[in-house]
Automatic annotation (TrEMBL):
Keywords: Oxidoreductase. This is Superoxide dismutase [Mn], mitochondrial. Its EC number is 1.15.1.1. It is an enzyme of class 1 (oxidoreductase). It comes from the Eukaryota.
């Protein structure tokens, strides 16, 4: 009901979870591409320039993302974002299906840290999944 404020407030966690899941996964699938189609190759671009200036290399950035994402307790996401508050790239994590944009960040790359993202190929060795996902990142996206 339109006037059921308590009911609307009660729905917020579900909207956040399911809406965030949709948004996060929509971005995630666009951020992936097979190696044969250019996956993992970061071409010269303003993003590459920013990564090199701030982290020194893509390898150094991926190490930061992997470490922070592996430290998530339970399920969530690791993010490479642009943080307008600091005017620079930022690596953050979110729990469950929370979105980086809800923190005021502009998400550039999301790494799904939910068990469903890696278990079939990596079992419980999610560190291998985090290491290998960089091979299929669609940097053109």
């Amino acid at each position: 009901h339109r006037n059921d404020l308590a009911g609307q407030v009660a729905l917020q966690p579900l909207i956040n979870f399911h809406g965030g899941g949709h948004v996060n996964h929509s971005m995630f699938w666009q951020n992936l591409i097979g190696e044969k189609n250019g996956g993992g190759h970061l071409h010269a671009s303003p993003l590459k320039t920013a990564i090199d200036a701030q982290y020194g290399s893509l390898g150094a950035l991926s190490a930061v993302v992997n470490a922070k994402t592996a430290a998530i307790f339970g399920s969530g996401w690791g993010w490479v974002t642009y943080n307008p508050a600091i005017g620079a790239l930022d690596v953050v994590t979110t729990a469950n299906q929370d979105m980086a944009s809800s923190m005021g960040h502009v998400p550039l790359l999301g790494v799904d840290a939910w068990e469903h993202a890696y278990y079939l190929d990596y079992n419980n060795v999610k560190a291998d999944y985090f290491k290998n996902i960089w091979r299929v990142v669609n940097w053109k996206d």
